[in-house]
Amino acid sequence: MAHYKNVIVLPALTLTAILALFLPTGSAHALALPRDPASPAANLVFTPEAPSPGSTVTVTYHPVDVLADEPELVLRGRFEIPRQVDLGHEPRNERIATLTPGDGGSFTGSFTAPNSAVYGIFVVEDMAGERLDTNGGMHFELPVFGEEKWSQAGVLIRRALHYEDRDPAIVSESHARAEELMREVLAEEDPGAVITVTISDSPPTGLERDPSELPPELRWTQAWMRWQEDGNSQLALGELEEEWPVAGGLRTGIANSGLLLAVESRDLDAVDLWTERILSEGWTDPWSDKLMIAQMISTLPERRARALELARDALADLDSVDLAGYAGRPLGQTAAEYADALARARADAQAEYNRLLGAG
């Protein structure tokens, strides 16, 4: 599995610049490439095929048989941000547009593209989330970028990541075009430079890098690494607090780490603070977050009641999920299939609640 690691510029043997690209591991057919637009999927067309950020996009969909008689359809999916740090979260999928019957048996709708470069991945569903068109498992896609070549390259890399288990030819095509764009940018910045783009078989995690190379939202990991060496949880808590304004709200793991350190140091005020930060940030699904917190804080006698409360809330969350609309339902999975997964999750949550109840 190839991941871009470094772009190295050596102008006149006097300057070496390494531009670290922090790329996520991840997992979506026909992308309109910046230079050579490919054909869109036959039964769904975005207009324009490669919109600029913030522009209006029109959707025209000619339904497969199982969706042809529906009064309304939903375009559901997500926009992936190039170079966004990905820490293994399940992606969140939203209802992007409602499609209504149009001319010639088609369905139409529109939406506003995000205000930054993104790679869009979608399926079409009925309103109940039971009948789906996943474009043969490839998903429908939409690149969104402006004139800036770095952002175009980032969208292409996102595209390659989506197709790495689906179509090797598209992966190679996307990598090649991204490399070309990066070379063009570096050549414009350093005319006459000798430019080499190297490819690594393993993605960077960020944790092994020099702190100066870390993106701002991951600087807090250095405090975590130091704590693992010296065991000073109070010092690490203070450092995480300093990094919270930058890393908070981005689901980087800082809140989870803060709570663990707070429990380790038995700092009840810090336990309460980092608990609320996890809940407001939304690390995973709300019930999973609450059960995780309950397990962590139940070791503190002063917070056992709070742990039980969170476990009860997790059960209530699982009982009230909107299967069709919930953002955690994976693309390509029907509402009924997701219901089966939730039933298993609820059984696990009930077992954890019973354990906490019995621990008293």
Quickly count the domains.
2
Instruction: Please count the helical segments.
Output: 9
CATH superfamily label of the largest domain: Immunoglobulins
- Amount of beta strand: 15-25%
List the topology elements.
Elements: E1 3-10, E2 17-20, E3 44-47, E4 56-61, E5 73-80, E6 94-101, E7 107-112, E8 118-126, E9 132-133, E10 140-144, H1 149-163, H2 168-189, E11 194-200, H3 220-230, H4 233-247, H5 254-265, H6 268-281, H7 286-297, H8 304-319, H9 335-359
Antiparallel strand pairs: 1-2, 1-11, 3-4, 4-7, 5-6, 5-8, 6-7, 8-9, 8-10
Helix pairs in contact: 1-2, 3-4, 4-5, 5-6, 6-7, 7-8, 7-9, 8-9
Structure report:
The chain has 360 residues and is an alpha+beta fold. The protein folds into 2 domains: 3-200, Immunoglobulins (Immunoglobulin-like); 213-359, Serine Threonine Protein Phosphatase 5, Tetratricopeptide repeat (Alpha Horseshoe). Helices cover 39% and strands 19% of the residues. The protein is built from 9 helices and 11 strands. The strands form 2 sheets. Strands 3, 4, 5, 6, 7, 8, 9 and 10 form an 8-stranded antiparallel beta sheet that branches. A hairpin with a 5-residue loop joins strand 8 (118-126) and strand 9. The longest helix is centred in the C-terminal third of the chain and has 25 residues, at 335-359. It starts with a strand and ends with a helix. Mean pLDDT is 83; it is low at 1-40 and 199-208.
